[in-house]
Amino acid sequence: MADIILRTEIPGTKARHGKVRDIYDLGDTLLIIASDRISAFDVIMKTGIPYKGIVLTQISKFWFGFLEGTVESHLISDNVSDYPKPFCDYPSQLIGRSMLVKKTKVLPVECVVRGYLAGSGWKEYQQNQTVCGHKLPAGLGQCAKLPEPIFTPATKEELGTHDENINFERCVKTIGKKNAEYVRDKSIEIFKKASAYAEKRGIILADTKFEWGEIGGKIILIDEVLTPDSSRFWPADKYGAGRDQESYDKQFVRNYLESINFDKSGKGIELPDDICEKTSAKYIEAYEQLTGKKFLFKS
């Protein structure tokens, strides 16, 4: 199995460790490193997924380029030689999985766009035919395509707790009317553009979440974008409404944890090699399918 980077260790520096990313504050910029850590049910597992951090970074890089002209992003460079010292001296830890980005004031909402009725949206729809304040037509089945993509924001909660779906009115109260309208409209615009592209590549973009930050009076796209961790991607040739779908994500991990009755509020566990390898292959498949390029980072 490939070397797995669970945490970057750069001498003389201090990182903030999230679920997946290690973030170094460099003043006006941040260095973001995507590790191979994996979380399921908001619990970080003891075992990582080979190449996962590289896949997430490379998919985000692809989309930042694809969306150039549509929206400004926080990406400055992913070339390790451009990084300040001491980071430029640690290519083995950083190549492929890191980005130097603009530091922004992060807007405290998850900007979720849904094109299909899945996950928490499907659960809410079954109860009252709505999703985050959107009244939907009667008779829609599980994973049905929605008439139009809908903006369904959520709160940003601390590590270990679940985000909460909110309506647009609460989003306005949280970040202001002008900002809320901008991120809503831009998130839907990006979703539609990315969805049309992905469909040509044989992938359905069911839903995704965007992060936005404010800098110099402008709101720009930040964090990861349209990756298997932030989105539901389904193979188009296997799609069928009325049931769960196959997906390009960590479903192998979730299924394994369910099979052993994992305590979803407990500590992370070691994952079997075959589960890690199958999950890694799915992430790499998503990259190759979306970009049309061979994944070249495997040793």
Structure description:
The structure is a single chain. By secondary structure, the chain is α+β, with helices and mostly antiparallel strands. The chain folds into 2 domains: 103 residues, Phosphorylase Kinase, domain 1; 133 residues, 2-Layer Sandwich (D-amino Acid Aminotransferase, Chain A, domain 1), CATH 3.30.470. 30% of the residues lie in helices and 24% in strands. Strands 8, 9, 12, 13, 14, 15 and 16 form a 7-stranded antiparallel β-sheet that branches. Strand 2 and strand 3 form a beta hairpin. The model has no long low-confidence stretch (mean pLDDT 94).
Secondary-structure map:
Blueprint: E1 16-17, E2 21-25, E3 29-34, E4 39-40, E5 43-44, H1 52-66, E6 75-77, H2 91-94, E7 98-102, E8 105-106, E9 109-116, H3 119-128, E10 130-131, E11 134-135, E12 145-151, E13 154-155, H4 168-175, H5 177-200, E14 203-215, E15 218-222, E16 231-235, H6 251-259, H7 273-291
Antiparallel strand pairs: 1-2, 2-3, 3-7, 4-5, 6-7, 8-14, 9-12, 9-13, 9-14, 10-11, 14-15, 14-16
Helix pairs in contact: 1-7, 4-5, 6-7
Q: Key features?
A:
299 residues; seven-stranded antiparallel beta sheet; globular; 7 helices; Phosphorylase Kinase, domain 1; single chain; five-stranded antiparallel beta sheet; 16 strands; D-amino Acid Aminotransferase, Chain A, domain 1
The named CATH superfamily of the largest domain: ATP-grasp fold, B domain
Q: Could you say what the CATH architecture of the largest domain is?
A: 2-Layer Sandwich
* SSE string, helices as H and strands as E: EEEEEHEHEEEHEEEEHHEEEHH
Which stretches of 5+ consecutive residues score pLDDT under 50?
none
How many helical elements?
7
Secondary structure: helix percent: 25-40%
